[in-house]
Design brief:
By secondary structure, the chain is α/β, with parallel strands linked by helices. It is built from 9 helices and 12 strands. The strands form 2 sheets. Strands 1-2-3-4-5-6-7 form a 7-stranded mixed sheet, with helices on one face. The protein is globular and about 55 Å long. The structure holds zinc ion.
């Protein structure tokens, strides 16, 4: 009897912990990450299929489509719905790419791969993190996620080609070691536009950019990586400014203007320059602060 009661008690403790953890996890995810947006065309053959903040992009070609970002574990169903709402086939997704190897952009990768049969191409530096489901991340405060297989390892500057569209993988390390900024050109209204999908240019709260005052840099060379990354961002030609998170490029603000101004709202070279300069200044301020205190 006693043993039976103990077992029930233990079961309740375990259940309580699981329910509690779920509550914590759900509370930790901002509503904008999981609230779906009506999908829309951005420019040329490039479409938005993400949520109010977790961006996902579909590049449509005659030989099949490329999906950039699988996002949270719960996101693939929403992304699929968006793709189908636009009139495209989920199983036409031939290649999956990612902005970064954090759970908010890559946790859905395993499911996207298994339901589409797409090839998974990942930048060197992010491969181990993707394959280990976040265990190999230098930032140990990040959530783990379902590991995903990697079919092809990309290197800086490598071109991903499908059906006449070419997307360039620009390595912008720092936020993750293989953080990737995707660039491509679209053709719209007789113009050729340079698209930049910023992979990530911030550092999470637990990250140390330098070794100083008893703290150790989060990975060897992280400060140099960020310096180089900002130099790369400064040099990129950008007409259509996009990113891994909607907040990078004021997705919601621009979306409000789209009914009257059309897809031209996504053309924002000045906004890109301003956002880049602000992030870069913030980085050097943070480095100075870490060195001083
Ligand atoms: Zn991240």
């Amino acid at each position: 009897m006693k043993r039976w009661l103990m077992r029930v008690g233990m079961l309740l403790v375990v259940l309580g912990t699981v329910v509690g953890m779920e509550r914590v996890a759900a509370a930790a995810v901002p509503a904008d990450w999981t609230t779906q947006l009506t999908p829309f065309k951005i420019s040329g053959n490039l479409y938005y299929v993400g949520s109010r903040d977790l961006a996902a992009y579909l590049v449509v070609t005659p030989k099949g489509n490329i999906l950039i970002n699988a996002n949270l574990e719960t996101s693939p169903a929403q992304i699929r719905q968006s793709v189908e709402q636009l009139g495209f086939k989920w199983t036409d997704t031939k290649i999956l790419l990612s902005s970064q190897s954090h759970y908010d952009h890559a946790a859905g990768a395993a499911e996207v791969l298994s339901t589409t049969g797409a090839q998974h191409m990942v930048m060197d530096g992010d491969v181990d993190v993707i394959k280990s489901g976040g265990v190999a991340d230098y930032d140990t405060s990040m959530d783990h996620f379902p590991p995903a297989r990697v079919d092809h390892v990309l290197h800086d500057g490598e071109k991903v080609s499908l059906g006449g569209t070419v997307i360039t993988a620009v390595k912008t390390p720092g936020h993750t070691r293989g953080c990737t900024t995707w660039t491509m050109q679209t053709h719209e209204g007789g113009r050729t536009l340079n698209v930049v999908i910023v992979g990530g240019w911030s550092w999470n709260p637990k990250v140390h950019l330098v070794t100083a005052h008893g703290r150790t840099e989060s990975y060897p060379g992280i400060e140099r990586d960020f310096e180089r990354t900002f130099a790369v961002y400064r040099a990129l030609p950008c007409d259509v400014f996009l990113g891994a998170h909607g907040v990078y490029f004021d997705l919601l603000g621009k979306l409000k203007r789209m009914p009257t101004e059309g897809t031209a709202v996504w053309i924002d070279p000045e906004g890109y320059k301003k956002a880049e300069a602000a992030k870069e200044a913030e980085f050097y301020k943070e480095v100075a602060k870490e060195k001083a205190s």
